[in-house]
Structures are given as C-alpha cells and as structure tokens.
Design goal:
The chain folds into 3 domains: about 180 residues, FAD/NAD(P)-binding domain (3-Layer(bba) Sandwich); about 80 residues, no CATH class; about 150 residues, FAD/NAD(P)-binding domain. About 25% of the residues lie in helices and about 25% in strands. It contains 8 helices and 23 strands. α6 links the parallel β17 and β18. About 0% of the residues have low confidence.
C-alpha cells in the first residue's frame, strides 16, 4: 500500500523545507508544531552567518508558501502523544490545544491586545519585555493570529472579563473553543524538533543572572528590529555600552558542541556590536576557533580586522563589580589577566529540543548520549533514524547550521519520494 500522507513534526526551517518539497511533489503533509507560530528558532534572528543574510527575508517567503499550500495541513499548538504501527501504516495521535481565536475570522489587527488588563513576561522575547494574556509572540509572527493564554487570562480564572472580545469587530474571539484529539494515518514521519541553547545559569561562573550579562538568544532579540528594544543595543539602565565581551564555547567541557557553530555565531555577535556601535571596545574569549568553510574563514578574518580583541583562554570567570563586569581569565601559560566590560554575551552550545526524551519514547527511536536523536548509520549525511519509516533532520539529530538543516530536509523528502515512486512502479 502506498500511503500518500507524511507527518512532519516541527515547523522550523528544516520542517518547513521538508514539508514544501513533499507537498510540491503531491504528498499530503501534516505539519505538527507545538508553538503558536512557525519558523522555529530562525525567526528569533535578524541576520544569519556567514553572509549576514536577512533571516526574515530568507524564511518569510517559505512561511507564506507553506500557509498557502493546499497539500499541507498545519497543526499549531499541537503535540504528538502516541505513535503505533510501522512504515507505511503509522497511526498517530495528536493533542491540539485551543487557540480561542478563530483562524478564519481574525485579520491580525491586534485590536484585542490593548484592552487586556493582564501583563506578564514574554517568553519568546527571552523575558526582556511583557505581553498580554492574548498575544502573538512578536511582530511578524505567522500565522498572524493571537492566542489566549488561559493560565493568565482573567476570564479563564473565573472573573467576568470579556474586554478582548468586545474589542474585536470581526467576532474572532471564541471562548468556547475546546482542545481537540486528532488521529492520523501516515506512511512516513520526519522529526524536525530543533534545538534549545544550554541554559547559561547552569554554569554560574560566567556571570549569567547578573545585570547586562545576556544569553545568545537574549542578545539576538535585542539586536532584532522587531525585538523588545527595536534593535537598540542598550544596557538595563538604558545607556549605551562602551565595552562588551563575547564568551563562546560556554559549557563545551561538559556538553557536545561543534566548535564551528559556536565560532560562527559568536563572530556574528562581533558584527552585531560593531554594526550598531562602531566605537565600542570588544573582546572575544575562546578556547578554540574552528571555521567550517572558506566563506566562514573570510568572515573570521573580517571580524579580526574590526579592531576587536581575540583572547584564547584556559579559564575564565565573570563577576559583577559596581555595575561593570570584570572578566578574570588565564591565558595559555597560566598568566591571569582582567578585562572590564559593560555588557557580556554568553554564547552557550546547542542542546536537544524540549522533551527530547519524551519524544524519543513516543516515536520509539534511540538517543545519543547527549540527548539528540540517533541515526541508523554512523554517517553525518544520514537522515534515517533507528526505526524504519522515521527520519531525523536538522538539529533534532545534533547541532547544525541553517544550510545543513535545509540540505537534510531535502534529503529526507527526496528519500521518501524516491521510495514512493519505486512502490508505485513509476
């Protein structure tokens, strides 16, 4: 039996690419995304290395194409809860949470936001700003339809509040929506569940938790034009920093992280700083530098020519000294030195996506010692999981850059299509 349905789990850049390739070839794709919008981690970025392309310009057309493709059924706010069967005949159970806003009636005008009396930290913006109980994570999020956070909404806490409904002239607010249980029958499954950065608070000697010490994603959102500071690189007190330190490879002693990925995105932060604040003093602290290709090597040289200081260290510690950050470090040979910075960016490695262990159990696939999903073949080009009919792409199988993630998405989709042609006798 040739089952024409494919399940893709995760709507980041890899999941979107795989879905588009399959749908364009006539497959019926069911794309499951646990968040309320699509694009994954890439939509947090302003620019991507090494050519500093506009991330939105790269992914937005793919998002729009996906939303318009009739062969793709997008299930946001959804998670797979059970998988049974085998290749060609998987039965998949999905729980889809209610959005409480009609996807059909809403036009994305955001008129419902201001009347909401509730404010809380915006997780998408790394808690650097606040959102309402009815919200979209950031300007430009797709689908451009808000959701109601029932944990924060006064109405769902028993109070008589319907201010967002009164503000909506299109009658898109639907308090009576219910969570749904969905069952699908699919032939193949692609896992594109992405990554999360290592929480730098787990390594306290880098100073994370002190004011003006930022994680990688916090700094990404500060630089982004649609972020909480509209792209202005400022300190907590609103002042402009005159010095900054970028520490990369944070946690690599304890966690697997390809040094090429750490190198490239930390170099991008030098560009971010120098682009917005040309006169800022910058120090980049590292243990090893690794560039994976010629264009990346060219980018490294360009950043070295910006006047930024590159310091190879054996040990490093960050402490708060009357508002400034004192970086105490040892260079090779054991000499101890200090560098004082107004701002510190802690670039930590990629870790498996949330609930990776739970997902591995649901799909019946093995994990590597670091938690990423294991592939059947010990080959970096493989996309085949340990279970026939299930494929691993992008950062679900380990740290990857965007180009590598797209290549794996195309490889998995191509394999599914080639096997379908063989089965159908074409």
């Amino acid at each position: 039996m040739n089952n024409n349905n494919v399940l893709v789990v995760g709507a980041g850049i890899a999941g979107i690419e795989a879905s588009l390739v399959l749908a364009q070839a006539g497959k019926s794709v069911h794309l499951v995304e646990r968040e309320m919008c699509i694009g994954g981690n890439v939509i947090k970025y302003e620019d991507v290395f090494s050519n500093l392309e506009c991330a939105t310009c790269m992914i937005a057309p793919k998002q729009q194409e996906l939303l318009a493709n009739e062969n793709i059924t997008l299930l946001t706010l959804s998670e797979v809860t059970r998988v049974e069967g085998s290749k060609g005949d998987f039965t998949v159970s999905i729980k889809q949470k209610a959005r409480y806003v009609s996807m059909e009636a809403c036009i994305g005008c955001n008129a419902c936001f201001d009347p909401c009396p509730v404010s809380l930290k915006n997780e998408f913006e790394e808690n650097l700003c606040e959102r309402k109980a009815i919200y979209t994570p950031c300007p430009g999020a797709l689908p451009n339809v808000p959701r109601i956070d029932t944990d924060a909404c006064l109405r769902f806490k028993g109070e008589d509040c319907n201010l967002c409904k009164e503000a909506c002239m299109f009658e898109a607010i639907e308090y009576d929506q219910k969570d749904e249980d969905i069952t699908l029958n699919v032939g193949e499954i692609i896992l594109a569940t992405g990554f999360r950065p290592l929480d730098p608070s787990k390594i306290p000697h880098y100073g994370y938790g002190n004011e003006d010490v930022y994680s990688a994603f916090e700094f990404e959102r500060m630089y982004a034009s649609n972020g909480p500071t509209q792209g202005n690189l400022v300190l907590k007190d609103g002042k402009t920093p005159s010095s900054a330190a970028v520490i990369f490879g944070v946690g690599v002693d304890d966690y697997r992280c390809p040094s090429s990925i750490c190198t490239m995105y930390s170099l991008k932060y030098i560009y971010y700083l120098r682009h917005k604040l040309p006169e800022i003093k910058i120090a980049e602290f590292y243990r090893e530098i690794c560039v994976p290709c010629k264009s990346c090597g060219d980018f490294l040289r360009k950043m070295q020519e910006t006047g930024s200081e590159f310091i190879r260290v054996e040990d490093i510690k960050v402490t708060d000294k009357k508002g400034s950050k004192e970086i105490v470090y040892k260079i090779e040979g054991g000499d101890e030195k200090t560098f004082t910075a107004d701002m510190v960016i802690v670039a930590s490695p990629m870790r498996p996506g949330n609930d990776a262990e739970k997902i591995a159990g649901i799909f019946g696939i093995p994990q590597l010692s670091d938690g990423f999903f294991a592939k059947q073949k010990d080959d970096i080009s493989s996309v085949i999981s340990g279970k026939d009919g299930i494929y691993i792409i992008g950062c679900a199988g380990g740290p990857k850059n965007i180009g590598e993630s797209i290549t794996e998405a195309q490889a998995a989709a191509g394999r599914i299509l080639s096997l379908s042609y063989q089965t159908s006798g074409q």
